[in-house]
Design a protein that fits this description.
Layout: H1 7-26, H2 34-37, H3 39-73
Helix pairs in contact: 1-3
Length: 74
Amino acid sequence: MAQGKSKEDYLIEHSKLLEELRDKADSIELEDGKFLDSPEEYAENLIEKEIIKFLPDFIKARKEGKKLARRLID
């Protein structure tokens, strides 16, 4: 394997990346009571804001997932 890493090493690295992304998603704060006025609008605005904020992380997770799959297949 390239760079002497085993499949297990790649799995561990990927798991850590996913954990970091999950921790970021868990840190999303909701504004108390604001969603009661218009839940649909609140949800759309929140999702839009968070997707933009985390887009680089989503792209990184996707790329790393592809790398992991390649390493596990080899």
